[in-house]
Amino acid sequence: MLMLMQPGAVYARQSLKFAAPVYVGDEVLVQVQALHIRASTTKHIVKFGTKCFTSDSDNLLAVDGEALAVLPSLYLRQQLNQVASQSLAPLNLSVSMAGATTTSSALRRMESVCRHLLPSSPPVLHQNLLGAMRLESSPVIIGGMVLDIHAKPSMQPHPGTTVPGMVKYVSGGVARNIAECICKLETQPFMISVVGNDMAGDFLLKYWRSAGLCTDGILQVDDITTPIVSNVFDGSGELIAGVASVGAVEKFLSPTWIYQFRLHISTAPLLMLDANLSPDSLEAACKIAHESGVPVFFEPVSLAKGSRIAPIAKYITYTSPNEIELVAMANSFSPPEKYNFVKMEQSKNKAKAVEHLFEMLSPAMFFLLENGIKFLLVTLGSNGVFVCCKECTSLMDQQKSEMMSFLTPLLEKLEGCFPSNMLVDLPREGSSRTCVIHLPAVSASVVSLTGAGDCFVGGVISALCGGLGMMQSVAVGIAIAKSSVESEANIPDKFSAATIADDARRTLLSAKMMWCK
């Protein structure tokens, strides 16, 4: 790999697995394969497969790994000044080495390889303004961009007739809302989605560009209708009924389209998927993330679509269902329906309500943990969140050792505001315990509930990418959700670091261990 380096190049990452012994004096065949190339006007990010084979008759694989390099150009030798544009394909570069001696055959192979390195139309990578040395890595969000139509009557609705009220267009969609929230928390997301070449699509893209967000991953298609969701709310902001037309997300966010952004996913600190994707696309995205050790956050979206988690559960690190979505997800593994949930009446005794919810939901929570989910974040509305995990691993810490720090200015303000000695904590790595911790919601003056769940997920993801711990990140998510319900918009225009820190601190100090065995 050192032979591929040039002045100004950055050898960013290397993973190795040692499969067979190599002894002093042995001759080794080294194979370098350029797997993926991402080009901008100033640099090229190349992911290589790196293998070493013994040179005896067995040709045993001795070392297997991957490397990531940032190259100022793709020229391997200064005298090569013309490079043919070819379609991107896997490339093989084999070099026979004995000690430190490299044969002229290897050099010839290196020269021939550069004639195939450039893709014909390299997509542009937008620089992450949060840090010039982050390898353009951003949390990747895949899912729906939707035009929401909100209808709120000013009097009690009557079947069979219209009533006066307010109707407005709002930029929406679970994945889009989460990405916007992450952006407003000063972390730059990379969105992969689809819209139509129509009024609604132009409306969504105009807003996206006005926020300074990259549209490289957003496919705009002629002759389709942009996904639209029409919702009717009651006077208190609760959803009465809604109709969603989001078939374009399943049809056009195909594995092929997602695969084009493999480098974004494989170098991301986290991948978020919403369940509007087709099962094939969900699996394709999960496999790309799994190959590179990228944590996956699954957002179930709805009761009907949350069941799509079953085939991909082994890849999922985090998921955030509400009570009924949790039960539906658990039942999707084992029909006929084994788990159930009966919504209880609103109780002024919060502690009693939380105990009742735990007794009712714990069988489904434990079942999902046994089936591969690493962290369950069960949202309970005004009753807070259950954080459930088994054999906790330091997934984001591992990512931080591989990626540059992702800490944002907002999260820097929050980091020192949390209690240093938590009353409850997650199990240590390697523990066989299953733990459920309850974090209460923060009291709020409710204006609209439509963006609360998305803001919770956006807050959790932004905090995790910023290096905060699991419990702190969930507390930040709860504080962000509180800001959302006090705003008319799906995502508030601004977040106050001081308010978020204060609300998150109060939530953490009131956390309670429900189960740890």
Automatic annotation (TrEMBL):
It holds the Pfam family PfkB. GO terms for cellular component: cytoplasm. Keywords: Kinase, Metal-binding, Transferase. It comes from the Eukaryota. Residues 159-398, 436-488 form the Carbohydrate kinase PfkB domain. GO terms for molecular function: hydrolase activity, acting on glycosyl bonds; kinase activity; metal ion binding; pseudouridylate synthase activity. Gene3D superfamilies: 3.40.1190.20, Hotdog Thioesterase (3.10.129.10). InterPro entries: HotDog_dom_sf (IPR029069), PfkB_dom (IPR011611), Ribo/fructo_kinase (IPR002139), Ribokinase-like (IPR029056). This is Carbohydrate kinase PfkB domain-containing protein. It comes from Oryza punctata.
